[in-house]
Amino acid sequence: MNTFNDIARYAEGDMTADERAAFETVLASDESLQRQLAVYREVHGSLQQHFSADAQRDQLQGTLQTLRGEFFGDTRQPANVVSIKRWLRGAVAVAAVLIAVVFIWQPWKPGLFREYADTTMVAPAERGEGEADLLQKAVTAFNNKEFAEAANLLQQVRQQDTTSSYVNFYLGISLLQTGRIAEARNIFNNLYEGQSAFKFDAAWYQALGYLKEDNKAMSKEWLQKIPADASGYNKAQELLRKL
Amino acid sequence: MVIVREIYTKYAARVKHYIMANNGDADDAADIFQEALIDIYNQAKNKQLQLTCPFEPFLLLICKRKWLNLLKKRGREPVTNDADDVSIGEDVFALAEQMQQSDRRLQVFLQCFEKLGDGCKEIIRKCLGGEELASIAEQLKVTYGYLRKKKSECMAALTKMIHSQLPE
Prior knowledge:
The complex is a heterodimer. Chain A is built from 13 helices and no strands.
């Protein structure tokens, strides 16, 4: 068995339903496979950005070339001079991106939240009739970081099955990501009170919710609820040290 | 455009001064400045870079690191010492490090990509470039199913090679 072939076929959606289910069963418990899948997605994403055309970047290049001579007393001319019209058209877009870069001033804690809140939703192996399609759409939206859409879809799934801790857990994250913290907190509380596989993951996201609000004390309190034998323990300890 | 000009007005002279005092000339300075701004743009656009530190020391640090790397490649030693870095905040270093790190990873990806066969290179470049798979299949005179299969195989080979080269 060639692992990377399987990973690629899984990620590209080339597997049959049976193969997919089998792959996901292994994936759930195999950390090395999870890491390899993450590398696959990173490579795919990076190269996608690298190879796709970016008109704004080309515009910025043009702008930089024209400013170059003025500010660096340079005699070299760009090989093909960008026409004024093209140059003006892009200017607005370029400025918008740079404004975002230069002036969006984020305090460091949302940074920590973003660093730690990132996760992917693994598609469930077993699916009930009817909800399968909705759930699949929710997984896709979630993994594309369209959390508002994911929350919407997961709420629909939940109407059919209110007890699924899996659905509740990812709904909680989607709500958290879209800033609906109070609703998320409610869900994570219930999960933490229960005995599902998501018990301590719920505690983890509860901590991140407080982190997002800059409530360090509550964040720490929830991190400390994650016991040493839970899978999220190391991560929790790491974050505790940073707080 | 106004913003870009503003950035040049504010910082170009300092970068030029630094590089010219460090075995470089005005052309080098212009190249480095330009590359740094493009890098920041790419990061902002693709990796959702959010500035969590002041822009000025961040830009200057990026330029400086780029220049020191280039000097090293040219086999020359830098002249000035790092004493003036002391005033730079930890957050600035962290963000610059994060940016360099993701650039280094992309370089590894691209080096491995170059080692693939021509067929795979073409397929990956086209498929990830945003074109419709159906139209790529038509151009390459293969079936849609074959193209999908090849894309997975090529991406698998590439990721395998990259995985063996990345530091753990």
